[in-house]
Structure formats: structure tokens, C-alpha cells
Amino acid sequence: MDFELTEEQEEFRQAVREFARDEIAPRAKELDEQERFPLEIVRRMGELGLFGLPFPERYGGQGGDFVTFCLCLEEIASVDSSVAITLEAAVGLGANPIFRFGTEEQKRRWLEPMARGEILGAFALTEAGGGSDVRSMRTTARLEGGKWVVDGSKAFITNSGTPITAVCAVAAITGEGEISAILVPTDTPGFAVGPPYRKIGWRASDTREVTFSGCRVPEANLLGERGRGYAQFLETLDDGRIAIAALATGLARGCLEESVRYAREREAFGRPIGAYQALQFKMADIRVGVENARLAYLRAAWLKDRGRRYKTEAAIAKLYASEVAVAAARDAVQIHGGSGYIEESSVARFYRDAKVLEIGEGTSEIQRILIARDLGLPGTEL
Ligand SMILES: Cc1cc2nc3c(=O)[nH]c(=O)nc-3n(C[C@H](O)[C@H](O)[C@H](O)COP(=O)(O)OP(=O)(O)OC[C@H]3O[C@@H](n4cnc5c(N)ncnc54)[C@H](O)[C@@H]3O)c2cc1C
């Protein structure tokens, strides 16, 4: 067993740590307050090669592995979850399905500019009528004169309406009990996005409703095999869950760093509040959570990088890390007292950003069902 990162992994982590500290952290508060998509930061992340990190060089990527990508997400999320989820969704949900299931032509057309951070792709699975219960979807795609005609709408779609969003992978019913994935370019007539949702957290991340009204796209825009859309989306989510676990680990670490700093400075009853064991124990517990959450996501990413089975490990990492993040944010606000409840403090933002980690890319309940299923328990079908 080897717990050392490779030189390349360590270098990327260090470079992104500096980038997050110098270029993202100073803007995080303003972007959150203005609920503004961080286009300039996205462009910088593109220059740094972050959007192409886990993809081969022949598709414009960096040829890195998933472990490295997750380490970078942790760094970014330790200062700003909105930027981290923008990167996570672009790579894990936008580009990844095209890399995994796309034809060579689709990879040339979409994956290459995505890997360079020039365009973003969105992943449209959830509908207003059901997120966990994916099979209840209503969106349809039918073949007509060599074109797919897509009709329906999707809810809560990340990166769907940014100025550089170019394509949306849509899960649609293509026949009796048959779900397929279709690539719909955003300039297709009939494609429309709603205004950004007003969210309690991830406020600088772009999340919208998307509608498809008779969108006609070439038959060749089928992504992967016809009828395998459901399985493909689930496999994509397995990867996404590892990345969300890394993001959650970063948020919890940010809470810890802010808390330790504050507890050393702030005084009460003539002593720094960090001298009180009641608060020391909170910080010690956050530290335990951060370390274990990191081990959990690294193990899942490591298994994935080796082509081994990682579905349950991804669910474990996502479930554990997201619950660690929510608890860490709650305790960090407590450690900050009244100032933790005021928007001036980063931990107030972390508190608002944390909750969605237990919801997006499969709720905590769904992760527990997947883990119970792996134990061979009955009644765990989804
Ligand atoms: C900010 C944000 C960004 C998002 N980005 C995307 C995106 O890019 N693409 C996309 O497709 N989706 C996206 N989503 C949607 C997200 O994946 C769903 O919200 C999530 O999967 C839950 O689905 P739901 O909201 O329909 O809740 P529901 O499925 O209605 O769940 C409601 C509650 O019931 C519980 N529940 C449901 N079924 C069961 C069961 N069998 N057993 C026990 N409990 C159950 C759930 O755990 C939850 O607590 C995003 C959501 C948010 C908030």
C-alpha cells in the first residue's frame, strides 16, 4: 500500500492551491453576493488545463488521472464551492459522458474544446417530476426523417445557461421502457433556458430549467448506444459522486482552516477561544472528518483510475464527505459565534453552500440505498 501522491499529482495540487488562494478566494464573496457566473475564472482555469485534466492529450486534455482532478477540486472548494461545482459539472457531467460514450467525431467536435475550457456542456437528467426516480421522466426523443426530435423539460441543470455553454446531453425516452442520451447543441431552435434559480448556496454557479420544444438534431447526436442512456447516466454519476466527495472535503477543510484561524485570534474571558476544550473538540472532529473523507474519495478515484469496480466506494465517499461538510459548516459557524452568521465571514457562505452536497448527484438516501444494495439487502432496487 502506498499513500504517497506522484510528483505530478503533488505539482498539480500545489499549483491549484496557489491559484485558488491568489485568484479565486479574493473574488469569492463578491461573486456569491452578485450571484454572478465566474466567467473570467473559468477562462483562467481553461488556461491552466483544469477542464482537460483527466482526458487524454489527443483530445486536448492533460492526460492526468481522476485522482489529480479530485485533488484540484478539493483545493478550489476549500475557498469557493461555486467555482468548484462549475468545474466539477463541466468535467464530470459535461465532458465525461462524451469521453466515455461518444463517437470519435463527437469527441473531436465537443470534447476537445471542452477540455480546453472554451465551451461547457451540461448534463440534463433531472426533471421537475423526479430526480431520484429517474425513470419517471417525460422528455421524449423520436426519430423523424433522420433527425431526433426532442420535446420536454429538465430541472436544476448546472452550467446550462452560461455564455459558453454549447451543448446539453439530454436523457430522453426513445421507445417503450427505453432511455437514450441525445446531444442537443444550445443553438438548436426550440432549445431554451429559464432564468437562473435563486439558490441558498452555490450562488455563482449557473443552474437553470431547460426546455426542448421540437428540437431537431442529427441522428448522429445519439450519445452511446440507443437504450443505454439510463445506464450511461448512472455510470457518469458514479464518477460525479467521487468528485462531489472531493468538493465536500474541500469545503470541510475550508471550514476547519477558517475556524482554527479565528479561534487563535478571538478572545473571550481573557483567553483565545481556541483554548477552550469545547471548541478544540469541534475542530478535532472536523479534522477527523476531513482526513477520512479525503481517504474515501481518493480510494474511489484510485479504483476508477485502475479500471476496477468503484460504484459502492463512490457512494460511500459521497455520502460520508457530504455529511462531514454539512457538520463542519454548522460547527464552523458555531465557533465563529455571531460573526459566523454574518455574510462578511466565509463560513456563512460555506454553511449555505454545504447543504446541496447531500442532495445533488444523488441524495444521501439514494447513496444509502446503493450501499445497502451492495450488502445484498432486498428492496434496494431503484
Ligand atoms: C444546485 C443543484 C444543481 C443540480 N445540477 C443538476 C444537473 O446538472 N443535472 C441534473 O440532471 N440534475 C441536477 N440537479 C438535480 C439533483 O440531482 C436532484 O435534485 C436530486 O437528484 C434529487 O432529486 P429531486 O430534487 O427530484 O428530489 P426527489 O427525488 O423528489 O427526493 C425528495 C426526497 O425524497 C427522498 N427519496 C426519493 N426516493 C427515495 C427512496 N426510494 N427512498 C428513500 N428516500 C427517497 C430523497 O432522498 C429526498 O430526500 C441539481 C440540483 C441542485 C439543487
Summarize this structure briefly:
With 382 residues, this protein is an alpha+beta fold. It has helices at residues 7-34, 39-47, 66-77, 81-101, 104-115, 229-265, 277-305, 311-336, 346-354, 364-374, and strands at residues 120-124, 140-144, 147-158, 165-175, 178-185, 191-193, 207-218, 222-223, 267-268, 271-272.
Low-confidence stretches: none
Basic shape: globular
The CATH superfamily of the largest domain is known as Butyryl-CoA Dehydrogenase, subunit A, domain 3
Small-molecule binders: flavin-adenine dinucleotide
Largest sheet: 4 strands, mixed
Kindly, what is the distance between the CA atoms of the first and last residues, rounded to a whole number of angstroms? 35 Å
What percent strand? 15-25%
User: What Rg, in angstroms, do the CA atoms define?
Assistant: 21 Å
Instruction: Tell me the quaternary state.
Output: single chain
Mean pLDDT: 98
Q: Helix segment count?
A: 10
| CATH hierarchy class name of the largest domain | Mainly Alpha
The fold-level CATH name of the largest domain is: Butyryl-CoA Dehydrogenase, subunit A, domain 3
Helix content: 40-55%
Structural class: alpha+beta
SSE layout and pairings?
Layout: H1 7-34, H2 39-47, H3 66-77, H4 81-101, H5 104-115, E1 120-124, E2 140-144, E3 147-158, E4 165-175, E5 178-185, E6 191-193, E7 207-218, E8 222-223, H6 229-265, E9 267-268, E10 271-272, H7 277-305, H8 311-336, H9 346-354, H10 364-374
Parallel strand pairs: 1-4
Antiparallel strand pairs: 2-3, 3-7, 4-5, 5-8, 6-7, 9-10
The chain binds flavin-adenine dinucleotide.
